[in-house]
Amino acid sequence: MDFYDVVFPVNLGLLTYGCDQALSSILKPGMMVSAQLKNKNMKGIVIGKSMAAPGKKVKVIKKVHGEDPILNESLITLLTWMSEYYLVHHGLALKSMLPREAFTGVRKRPSKKQVLKKFDTDLLEIDKHDVAKVLNAMALKTYATFLVHAPSTLYEYSFFIKILLFISSFIMLRNFSMTSLS
């Protein structure tokens, strides 16, 4: 069993983990791995092979993420320099080097059609002729101003959601006018 120094993005120094021969053959300094830390599996970065085998029971690296190192040798040197210069643990230096999303799962954003599909049941039926005018102007890439008389807020939202299905961005200026009945 080989031993590697791993740093996690928490306020800790280098921790030594064991690695079986199958993973050890593909493991390089700078690669992201998963290992147990405080009864949780966390992602960390391998700094290099450990110089000496620890005398106590060692936890093992469970998974290697990706085929290429995330940090190259110069970035690992920078990480070590930062921890020494600023007198902080390697984990805090790593935390400041990489974004949080590097160590957590990033949720996939739903597509615009999936988001707008939720509104389909609540929308009003909109005159296709009115929507077509706006879409034609956008297809020609001309600047155009449209005055839409919306009898209700729901109609207004329905109109713009219908347009959003076909375009990527637009600017909406909304004017509220109040009239007095007295």
User: What is the number of beta strands?
Assistant: 5
Low-confidence stretches: 178-182
Termini separation comes to 89 Å
Give the integer mean of the pLDDT values.
81
**What is the name of the CATH architecture of the largest domain?**
3-Layer(aba) Sandwich
Integer count of domains: 2
Give the C-alpha Rg.
28 Å
Order of helices and strands: EEHEEEHHHHH
Strand residue percentage: 15-25%
Short description:
The protein has 182 residues and is α+β, with helices and mostly antiparallel strands. It has helices at 21-24, 73-85, 90-97, 112-117, 128-139, 153-164; strands at 2-7, 15-19, 32-37, 40-49, 61-65. The chain folds into two domains: 2-102, PriA, 3(prime) DNA-binding domain (GIY-YIG endonuclease, 3-Layer(aba) Sandwich), CATH 3.40.1440; 112-164, no CATH class.
Which properties best describe this structure?
182 residues, GIY-YIG endonuclease, alpha+beta, elongated, five-stranded antiparallel β-sheet, disordered C terminus
Write the layout of secondary structure elements.
Layout: E1 2-7, E2 15-19, H1 21-24, E3 32-37, E4 40-49, E5 61-65, H2 73-85, H3 90-97, H4 112-117, H5 128-139, H6 153-164
Helix pairs in contact: 2-3
Explain what the structure shows:
With 182 residues, the chain is an alpha+beta fold. It has two domains: 2-102, PriA, 3(prime) DNA-binding domain (GIY-YIG endonuclease), CATH 3.40.1440.60; 112-164, no CATH class. It has six helices and five strands, in the order ββαβββααααα. A five-stranded antiparallel sheet has the order 2-1-4-3-5. A hairpin with a 7-residue loop joins strand 1 and strand 2 (15-19).
